[in-house]
User: Which sequence fits this backbone?
């Protein structure tokens, strides 16, 4: 089953945009009367019938819809410092979408080598990855913030920070997730976002978080965690953390 994306369908829109329409008609050869499946990016899957197969704008009727399609039983924000090679951040964003993430927040740390972040290409990758992995919800991509700005915000739920230096009180990420006392999320299948267990994880830049950033994080109640003994690249560490949360709630 192929998925198409329409950001307007939940507000009554019944036309695919030019790119989606061209793919639907010219590549997949759909025609008037065919059934297609459209996601709204917020968790709804619509079964639709094509009424006009114009490749510049496919018009369709909605027959039925399914809530919480391809969603997961937790809410996860990954706040990650993009590496100098932006291709690696794009790889992380794509794979994290396939696994299960709700918000990606790019950060600039004191030791970041990258100070510019352009969201347009990554936003397109998130849509493509969500469709490919049959997710009804597309992760939100935040505007880039400094680590300090991010830490000064209020964040609900479990707050974890990963960094390389040894720290008093650092525990394994699996232990931190187990110790959080989350209710069995499998019993909350289909629950709205507000009732899901919330986890936010920070991953630092090539040069790690600065001492001042770590001190602020600890002061603000963030739990330092370890991702194991291997020394990982930024994007690898971010994906390991994403996977740890996914596996914790998939038990």
Assistant:
């Amino acid at each position: 089953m192929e998925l198409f994306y329409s950001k307007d369908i939940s507000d009554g829109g019944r036309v695919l945009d030019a790119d989606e329409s061209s793919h639907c008609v010219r590549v997949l050869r759909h025609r008037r009367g065919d059934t297609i499946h459209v996601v709204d990016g917020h968790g709804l899957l619509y079964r639709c019938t094509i009424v006009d197969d114009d490749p510049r704008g496919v018009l369709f009727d909605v027959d039925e819809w399914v809530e919480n399609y391809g969603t997961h039983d937790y809410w996860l924000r990954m706040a990650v410092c993009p590496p100098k090679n932006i291709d690696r951040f794009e790889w992380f964003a794509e794979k994290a979408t396939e696994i299960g993430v709700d918000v990606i927040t790019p950060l600039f740390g004191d030791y970041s080598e990258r100070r510019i972040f352009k969201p347009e290409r990554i936003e397109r990758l998130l849509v493509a990855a969500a469709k490919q992995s049959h997710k009804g919800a597309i992760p939100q991509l935040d505007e880039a913030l400094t680590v300090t700005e991010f830490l000064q915000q209020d964040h609900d739920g479990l707050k974890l920070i990963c960094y390389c230096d040894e720290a008093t009180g650092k525990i394994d990420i699996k232990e931190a997730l187990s110790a959080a006392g989350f209710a069995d999320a499998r019993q909350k299948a289909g629950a709205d976002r507000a009732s899901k267990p919330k986890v936010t994880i920070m991953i630092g830049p090539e040069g790690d978080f600065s001492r001042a950033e770590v001190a602020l994080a600890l002061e603000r109640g963030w739990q330092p965690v370890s991702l194991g003994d291997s020394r990982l690249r930024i994007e690898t560490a971010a994906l390991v953390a994403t996977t740890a949360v996914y596996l914790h709630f998939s038990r």
The mean pLDDT is 93. The helical segments are 18-27, 86-99, 120-132, 147-151, 173-179, 211-219, 234-249.
